[in-house]
Specification:
Oligomer: heterodimer
Radius of gyration of chain B: 22 Å
Largest sheet of chain B: 9 strands, mixed
Structural class of chain B: alpha/beta
Shape of chain B: globular
CATH class of the largest domain in chain A: Alpha Beta
Number of domains of chain A: 2
Largest sheet of chain A: 7 strands, parallel
Number of helices of chain B: 7
Number of helices of chain A: 9
Number of strands of chain A: 18
Radius of gyration of chain A: 21 Å
Order of helices and strands of chain A: EEEHEHEHEHEEEEEEEEHEHEHEHEH
CATH superfamily of the largest domain in chain B: HUPs
Number of domains of chain B: 2
CATH topology of the largest domain in chain A: Rossmann fold
Distance between the termini of chain A: 48 Å
Helix content of chain A: 25-40%
Chain lengths: 326, 258
């Protein structure tokens, strides 16, 4: 019986949502492939998390629970994953395209000689083989990719694959693995949280982004206030990042982050092609701009031609009011 | 300190992408090609390390003849020499094949450090750093926003979702550059003139000791298309009060996202 292996990333003692999305997708593919699903948990104190991973569809959970794996090191994590792949000979390997997944997956692919397709947004089974769809040029084009041989390894974009319904009573088995931690030439020494309560752009359901229309960094709080009112993450155009108004981590677009939230609000952003590339796969887009001819309106679902200085405060107040009522 | 920087030539980020008639690649026609922006951060970092520690900076790029202009821009910024990996066999390589070719070129150089961009803009795979590190059997730190070179080791800061990590790695290592690492310099006129005199060495698959089976792709793009166009915009009329009220109603009742 063919096997699908997924990497279940743990952060701060919790299985990350993107990992559960990967298990859910593996479960969906397991039907047409006639496959079993196995997941790999790596870290310190991760054994109790196996049941949660299994509830989303893993039949078997490989657990590498070791004090030495408490802080992330690419080499030891890659070895553990590669060990499972060598042992189980899966036809498919799915890894979330998170900072950790992005870092570890290529190392594993080179180690086991797998073809790796990055940042996949759709997987389908065709003639018993996988076919992947992925945005390229930051979303200016969509590529369809197939593998030659197995394992067919892919990293999955977070926030795109639907989370399955967990079944707490799903039977599963746990296999305890022993990780080779002898080689860790590079490893994390310390981690600092980047401000409590901040919503990460690539994982956000709602994003409010600001651009040059805000005229200066001193006005960017208008964007932050709307984001607060909506429980959203804050983004920015390249122009304002390059001008030093906000941190580069907030940049949405081709040399920044590619995002696909449920709702994207672009305030004072004209819509340079490299910005549109990074956000046009959002489900619903709202554009607020004083220039009715701004290219941002070409990708928007709802458009407001108006002054951001007038519209944003009113929108923040009204959104706060709406959320308090629902 | 010998630093190798892998660079990729990519279409300008402002370029509109058109699909080639075969439906599998982009139409190159009148595209403007640039050094992938993340690779510019890598070149800049290598030059700063050289300025502090001495040593040399070697550029490596794989691709057709046009790639020479990307190497030339890196040389104009201040890199010492450049290697161009060119072979008909490289035309169909995937990421793994590219990494094997780069590794074959880098291994004999005995570099202390290999720098790359965190991803090549366009392909957006973000794979080469990790593939290369595994093939070269050296450690890796990806998405670096700060690099400090010590004695036989480096301290590297990187950003992950909502947090900031500090890594320590032994050298040699592969480190990939993220935006925020530095502000790349512009080539000076003197640099541009000097770059013209520097030679770019070309190597093919055979001279790198690579056989066709090493380069056989494991993944293949079978189709490329433009994304479906969006449904079109509904403009909301009225004054700001009316616009805000109607927008929230639409988001709540029609789009159901609030």
């Amino acid at each position: 019986m063919p096997t699908i292996v997924t990497f279940a990333e743990v952060r701060d003692g919790k299985v990350r949502r993107a990992s559960l999305e990967a298990v859910s997708e593996a479960r969906r593919l397991a039907g047409p492939l006639g496959a079993t699903v196995q997941s790999v948990l790596i870290g310190q104190g991760v054994a109790p998390l196996a049941a949660e991973v299994a509830s989303y569809g893993a039949d078997r959970v490989h657990v590498f629970d070791d004090a030495e794996l408490g802080s992330y090191a690419t080499e030891s994590f890659a070895r553990a994953l590669a060990q499972v792949i060598t042992q189980e000979k899966p036809s498919v390997v799915l890894v979330p395209y998170t900072a950790m997944g992005k870092d570890v997956a290529p190392r594993v692919a080179a180690r086991v000689g797998a073809g790796l397709v990055s940042d996949v947004v759709k997987l389908e089974v065709k003639d018993g083989k996988l076919e992947a769809r992925r945005p390229v040029y930051a979303g200016k084009a969509l590529a369809t990719v197939r593998w030659e041989g197995e394992p067919q390894m892919a990293t999955l974009r977070p926030n795109v694959f639907a989370l399955g319904t967990p079944e707490a009573s799903r039977p599963f088995e746990t296999v305890t693995g022993t990780a080779d931690v002898s080689t860790r030439r590079a490893r994390v020494q310390s981690v600092q949280a980047a401000g409590a309560g901040k919503v990460e752009l690539t994982e956000a359901q709602i994003i409010v982004s600001g651009g040059r229309g805000l005229k200066g960094p001193e006005n960017f709080h208008l964007v932050e206030e709307l984001a607060n009112a909506l429980g959203a993450a804050v983004g920015a155009s390249r122009a304002v990042v390059d001008a030093g108004w906000v941190d580069h981590q907030m940049q949405v677009g081709q040399t920044g982050k590619t995002v696909s939230p449920t709702l994207y609000v672009a305030a004072g952003i004209s819509g340079a092609i490299q910005h549109l590339a990074g956000m046009s796969s959002s489900k619903v887009i709202v554009a607020i701009n004083k220039d009715a001819d701004a290219p941002i309106f070409k990708v928007a679902d709802y458009g407001i031609v108006g002054d951001v200085f007038e519209v944003l405060p009113k929108l923040s107040a009204a959104a706060k009011d709406l959320r308090s009522r629902h | 300190m010998k630093t190798v920087v892998c660079i990729k030539q990519v279409p300008d980020t402002e370029a509109r992408i058109r699909i080639a008639p075969d439906g599998k690649g982009i139409a190159e026609g009148d595209l403007n090609w640039i050094v992938s922006p993340y690779d510019e951060f890598a070149i800049e970092e290598a030059l700063r390390i050289k300025e502090k520690k001495g040593g040399e900076v070697v550029l490596v790029a794989l691709g057709p003849d046009r790639v020479q202009s990307a190497l030339r821009s890196g040389l104009a910024m201040g890199a010492d020499s450049a290697l161009h990996l060119k072979d008909p066999l490289f035309e169909s390589v995937d990421t793994l094949g590219t990494a094997w070719a780069l590794a074959a070129a880098i291994r004999p150089l005995a570099a202390d450090l290999v720098l790359t961009g965190q991803q090549g803009v366009g392909g957006d795979n973000s794979q080469i750093p990790g593939l290369l590190a595994e093939i070269l059997d050296v450690p890796q730190v990806t998405m670096a926003v700060k690099v400090e070179i010590g004695e036989g080791k480096a301290t590297v800061e990187r950003e992950i979702e909502g947090a900031h990590e500090v890594w320590e790695t032994s050298l040699p290592a592969v480190i990939s550059a993220q935006k925020g690492l530095n502000e790349p310099r512009y080539a000076s006129l003197k640099g541009i003139m000097a770059a013209k005199k520097k030679t770019i060495e070309t190597k093919d698959a055979a001279s790198l000791g690579l056989k066709p089976e090493d380069l056989a792709p494991k993944t293949r793009v079978v189709g490329l298309e433009l994304p479906a166009s969006r449904p079109g915009v509904k403009m909301i009329p009225g004054d700001a009060d009316a616009q805000v009220k109607e927008l929230l109603r639409l988001l709540h009742e029609e789009a159901k996202v609030l």
